[in-house]
Amino acid sequence: MVHSVSIANNKTTIYESAVAGGMAGAITRAVAQPLDVLKIRFQLQLEPIRNGSKYSSMLQAVSSIVKEEGILALWSGHVPAQYLSIAYGVLQFSVFEQLTQVCQSADQQFYYTHRHWINFSNGGVAAAVGTVASFPFDTVRTRLIAEQKTKKAYKGFTHAITSMVRTEGVAALYKGLIPTLGQ
Fold this sequence. Notes:
Blueprint (H helix, E strand, L loop, with lengths): L1 H5 L7 H31 L13 H12 L8 H29 L1 H6 L1 H32 L10 H12 L8 H6 L1
Helix pairs in contact: 2-4, 4-6
């Protein structure tokens, strides 16, 4: 994308960037969701792996989850995860492209001389905007993945988000935002 900005006749539109970001996010999430489920299950596991924990390896964890909860459990929290990935991708790609075009049109010589630092900065700003806007989906996704399928706290995405806001307030949707922005 950055290379296409430098070619005067081949500018990427904000719309094209948004669509590319949304599609990239959706496809990546659909493929990688089982790994995310495994990551969160391992993170929430209290026992050390070597001392008789529920999950001892990735293969054993996948087998255990599928056996106990069904194959679809590997896509727990997939709906909010898709919202997260699509919203983040759309915003990150389009904000980055918009900032880059503004910087380039403001002073082309300065932009080309310092484009690596400008692109680095634009990428950071774009990532921060995408993170803040999509973070509530991340919080809901994590809770849906973390809940035990035999003792469900939520009936789905909509119930989770409304229950969280009703019982804990809107701030509950942004728990952990500061370290995530730092990341």
